[in-house]
Design a protein that fits this description.
By secondary structure, the chain is of the alpha+beta class. It contains six helices and 16 strands. The protein has one domain: Electron Transport, Fmn-binding Protein, Chain A (Pnp Oxidase, Chain A), CATH 2.30.110. It is 19% helix and 36% strand. A hairpin with an 8-residue loop joins strand 9 and strand 10. It is globular, with a radius of gyration of 19 Å. Its cofactor is FMN.
Length: 214
């Protein structure tokens, strides 16, 4: 089926893209507002853009045309923590996605413990298996109250039992049991790491010898 995206409304384009660009990692973003109040919210418009130098991106949309608290805090505060979501934290993450007002602490509502960060003011979620302390590098305006946030990770906190070698920075990704977003909108589709497939990278000579055929 052919879809001409330029002829579709934004909602339809959104539905097509979020249903097909999957699974998407979830950035569980913790920020502080100008009064020091905590905010936590999940974003699946999120990705790693560069490893050296490290750079990640978060797409922060609007809610009913108004700016989201996270977007305002990122623009004004310049610091944030990206926590990754494991399957045992899925319900808590869902609570923080509720449209609370800026005066409400989503971390408290979800019963989440926090620990102080080392380089930034916002705390990290203590039970998250991975957390990146980040500094806002650039804010790109893409539409009214919609921004792309480029962030530089300054530090990583990774659960000890998933670290195979701290010296070599080898991590057992499967042990983290991270979840991914499978669609957008009000749908509750998520992927779980129940089945991983190992597929070694091929050299050209291996491919020519037919070793990469399944």
């Amino acid at each position: 089926m052919y879809f001409n995206l330029s002829e579709l409304d934004g909602r339809s384009t959104y539905k097509l893209m979020t249903s097909t660009i999957v699974p998407r990692p979830i950035a569980w973003v913790v920020t502080l507002d100008r009064e020091g109040r905590r905010n936590a919210a999940p974003f699946s418009f999120f990705g790693l853009l560069s490893g050296d130098p490290p750079l990640l991106c978060i797409g922060v949309g609007a809610r009913a045309g108004a700016a989201k608290d996270t977007g305002i805090n990122l623009r004004e505060g310049g610091e944030f923590v990206v926590n990754l979501v494991s399957r045992n934290l899925l319900d808590a993450m869902n609570v923080t996605a509720i449209d609370f007002g800026p005066e409400v602490d989503e971390l408290e509502m979800a019963g989440l413990r926090t620990e102080a960060s080392v380089h930034v003011r916002p705390p990290r979620i203590a039970d998250s298996p991975v957390a990146f302390e980040c500094r806002v590098e650039q804010v790109l305006n893409i539409a009214a109250n919609r921004w792309l946030i480029l962030g530089v990770p300054l530090a990583a906190h990774i659960r000890d039992d998933a670290v195979l070698s701290a010296e070599k920075c080898y991590i057992d990704s499967g042990r983290l049991e991270l979840v991914g977003r499978m669609r957008g909108g009000d749908g509750g589709g998520y992927s779980l790491q129940d089945h991983l497939v190992e597929l070694p990278a091929l050299t050209r000579s291996q491919w020519e010898a037919g070793k990469g055929r399944r």
